[in-house]
Design a protein that fits this description.
By secondary structure, the chain is α+β, with helices and mostly antiparallel strands. The protein has a domain at 38-109. It has helices spanning 38-47, 60-63, 94-109, and strands spanning 70-73, 82-85. Strand 1 and strand 2 (82-85) form a beta hairpin.
Length: 116
Amino acid sequence: MAKELPILPSTAQPGDAAQAEQHLYSRVFCQKENSPPLRLLVEFLKSRGQTPITPPDMDDAMLDEWAWVQVTLGYDNSRKPIQVFCVRDRGSYQDVFAEEKKQFLELLVAHDDIEA
């Protein structure tokens, strides 16, 4: 069973364009046979006090899609949105999943000597 992690608020975007973030990326590994539809993700975030900004052209059919691959979710109008990818451990994205997992584990191994 996975551990539920808290959703932490982010700091304000730097005023200097040179310091502004290039992109925001987060790794989340879902090992369930069927990843949840976007509607469940949006409802989960809302239940935790975080209301995501969905793309203006997103309709109910898209929110209920189980086979989604990518969506852009905003969290603050003054910040760049998060690119959310659902890369599954099966099908045509299995090699991408394996590579992402390998890269993530390599990042963790680099910090093995640091006490949690």
